[in-house]
Amino acid sequence: MNLELSEEQEAVRRLAREFTEREIVPYAAEWDRAESVDRAIVKKLGDLGFLGLTVPEEYGGSGGDHLAYVLVTEELGRGDSAVRGIVSVSLGLVAKTLAAWGTEEQKRAWLPRLCSGEALGCFGLTEPGTGSDAGSLTTRAVREGDAYVISGSKMFITNGTWADVVLLFARTGDEPGHRGISAFLVPADAPGLTRREVHGKLGLRGQATAELALDGVRVPASAMLGPEGKGFSVAMSALAKGRMSVAAGCVGIAQAALDAAVSYAAQREQFGKPIAHHQLVQELIADISVDVDAARLLTWRVADLIDRGRPFATESSTAKLFASEAAVRAASNALQVHGGYGYIDEYPAGKLLRDARVMTLYEGTSQIQKLLIGRARTGVSAF
Ligand code: FAD
């Protein structure tokens, strides 16, 4: 892998960095307090092509490789994980999955709107009773003529109240576990679908997270994404790439933690000199710096493997596991560098720590990533 970025990759990173500095950083704390990102950000992300990265241009995407996608995701994550998550879900989990599994008609119907930001997508896998054990989900889709009628509920759905389309997973067969699951593209305004915002999150407070209730939601049979009974494969293929995107967002958090710690250590004085002169403060900063580099390299490796058409799922779990734990450590270390000031929201360290904390939970907890990596190395499934 060549670690030198191409001119195109440098340009897209610069674009994302300038956008983040101008449109996100000045507002992130305010959005966090208000528990809502300004929705106008979606159109701005779409206008720059950030919601269509890696999606073919013929479907309204902006093309580009996965390293470019990772670079943009890191920059957005450096500014505000709540904004980064909008892109990771609508593009990473929904549009990219649709591009990979969709029929021509499905792609034409949804991709141009998703890529432009005119529409947003959300990913409905988790249910109140099934998180890590997603293969046991109970939402059911029953065939009635040339339609399916779907009933059940979904929990913790990012973009849930904002989305125009739900990539929804439901049981269509009687086979136990993941074999009876199919994927559907469900318009969010379908009769019988109601959405309720989940409030009081520790972090990602600006992001719209929702509970979905489906009561006899009718969709045409043509709304099924991928073959019947293959919904779990659709979900796992989405999450394998999604974990790279979460990892990139975590690199952004860790980088923001490093920037904040270095800047504070240079200006805060104790014992007659800037605290950067104290060796134990330097140790905190060095630990953050190592975490940033290691997490970034693991994440770039995944992008490189995908772009070269090589297997990447275990490497993606590895990057997500390491980067998410690293982001929590880095944010906590940055808070320590700030002393008591790190504990109030005038400084960014506290928000970084709150936002980082969910990264070890969603798209597969750290324990689940370890089981996936362990299975790949030993050939033994612990599930
Ligand atoms: P559980 O599965 O109940 O796990 C509880 C604990 O048990 C964890 O520590 C877990 O690691 C451990 N555990 C479980 N099974 C095992 C095992 N076999 N071995 C060892 N330990 C185990 N879901 C979506 O579908 N779409 C979204 O857009 C989405 N966005 C989210 C946004 C937020 C802010 C949050 C908090 C969650 C989101 N989720 C989403 C759900 C998320 O993916 C789940 O919360 C996650 O998969 C964990 O499931 P759970 O919360 O039910 O925890």
UniProtKB/TrEMBL annotation:
<dbReference type="Pfam" id="PF02770">
    <property type="entry name" value="Acyl-CoA_dh_M"/>
</dbReference>
<feature type="domain" description="Acyl-CoA dehydrogenase/oxidase C-terminal">
    <location>
        <begin position="229"/>
        <end position="376"/>
    </location>
</feature>
<dbReference type="InterPro" id="IPR036250">
    <property type="entry name" value="AcylCo_DH-like_C"/>
</dbReference>
<dbReference type="Pfam" id="PF00441">
    <property type="entry name" value="Acyl-CoA_dh_1"/>
</dbReference>
<dbReference type="Pfam" id="PF02771">
    <property type="entry name" value="Acyl-CoA_dh_N"/>
</dbReference>
<feature type="domain" description="Acyl-CoA oxidase/dehydrogenase middle">
    <location>
        <begin position="122"/>
        <end position="217"/>
    </location>
</feature>
<comment type="similarity">
    <text>Belongs to the acyl-CoA dehydrogenase family.</text>
</comment>
<keyword id="KW-0285">Flavoprotein</keyword>
<dbReference type="InterPro" id="IPR006089">
    <property type="entry name" value="Acyl-CoA_DH_CS"/>
</dbReference>
<dbReference type="InterPro" id="IPR046373">
    <property type="entry name" value="Acyl-CoA_Oxase/DH_mid-dom_sf"/>
</dbReference>
<feature type="domain" description="Acyl-CoA dehydrogenase/oxidase N-terminal">
    <location>
        <begin position="6"/>
        <end position="118"/>
    </location>
</feature>
<keyword id="KW-0274">FAD</keyword>
<protein>
    <submittedName>
        <fullName>Acyl-CoA dehydrogenase family protein</fullName>
    </submittedName>
</protein>
<dbReference type="InterPro" id="IPR009075">
    <property type="entry name" value="AcylCo_DH/oxidase_C"/>
</dbReference>
<keyword id="KW-0560">Oxidoreductase</keyword>
<dbReference type="InterPro" id="IPR009100">
    <property type="entry name" value="AcylCoA_DH/oxidase_NM_dom_sf"/>
</dbReference>
<dbReference type="InterPro" id="IPR006091">
    <property type="entry name" value="Acyl-CoA_Oxase/DH_mid-dom"/>
</dbReference>
<dbReference type="InterPro" id="IPR013786">
    <property type="entry name" value="AcylCoA_DH/ox_N"/>
</dbReference>
<dbReference type="InterPro" id="IPR037069">
    <property type="entry name" value="AcylCoA_DH/ox_N_sf"/>
</dbReference>
